[in-house]
């Protein structure tokens, strides 16, 4: 009889562990204001004022966003730039854009691109094209999906 009571007590104790873990997880995840959005890149065009990034939107669509060069050079209040370019080595990982938000406002972006400029995701803006106005007064970006 004592063995049965002990076995039942152990089963109840083990069954209650996931309940406490879920409550703790819910408290920590709801307290964070950060979230991020990733988008696979179709093309990255370096430009004198920043990067033109065409990314996949849904199954067959695409959209374009403009990332000012200042985001990758200037340090903001926290000490780090608003943007970061991360070079991917050879392999199977596809280039992508990660946009991090804090409380609904953009925190920073990371542009994961291939080192090899010969990769199909790199492109060039033709010399006669002037798109300087696209990089003016950009404070935030919202990726379309």
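Q: What amino acid sequence fits the structure above?
A:
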């Amino acid at each position: 009889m004592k063995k049965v009571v002990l076995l039942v007590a152990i089963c109840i104790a083990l069954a209650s562990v996931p309940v406490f873990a879920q409550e703790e997880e819910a408290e920590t995840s709801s307290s964070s204001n950060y979230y991020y959005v990733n988008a696979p890149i179709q093309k990255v065009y370096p430009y004198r004022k920043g990067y033109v990034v065409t990314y996949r939107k849904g199954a067959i669509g695409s959209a374009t966003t403009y990332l000012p060069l200042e985001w990758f050079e200037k340090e903001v209040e926290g000490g780090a730039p608003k943007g970061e370019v991360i070079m991917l080595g050879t392999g199977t990982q596809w280039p992508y854009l990660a946009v991090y938000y804090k409380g609904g406002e953009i925190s920073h972006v990371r542009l994961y691109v291939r080192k090899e400029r010969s990769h199909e995701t790199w492109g060039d803006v033709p010399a006669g094209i002037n798109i300087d106005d696209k990089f003016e007064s950009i404070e935030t970006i919202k990726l379309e999906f």
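Q: And what stands out in the fold?
A: The helical segments are 2-30, 70-73.
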